[in-house]
Design goal:
about 90 residues
Length: about 90
């Protein structure tokens, strides 16, 4: 079973490979956004009493996603696929 963010990464990879229609870049952005939301959800579910900042929508996360998007746009098709695969592997950990 896939989490929503994992599903989006698979879709982005399939789009990049031309197996399904759609924008791989836009789907990658959605996947990264969903990954950070998943981290926030996991932290919220731990019941921790520590102060843990919310990642989703933070300046750091927005800048990170924007930077990856810029790198993706400027990259060759092969490098774009590499970016999708790297980002998807990061979401697992």
């Amino acid at each position: 079973m896939f989490t929503f963010d994992e599903f989006l990464y698979v879709q982005a990879e399939m789009m990049q490979e031309g197996l399904i229609p759609g924008s791989a870049g836009a789907t990658l952005t959605a996947a990264m956004t969903a990954s950070f939301a998943k981290v926030d959800e996991v932290v919220a579910g731990t019941g921790t009493t520590q102060t843990v900042p919310t990642l989703s929508g933070s300046t750091a996360v927005t800048d990170f996603i924007s930077d990856i998007g810029g790198e993706f746009t400027a990259a060759s098709a092969q490098k774009q696929l590499e970016i999708i695969i790297c980002q998807s592997s990061y979401c697992i950990y």
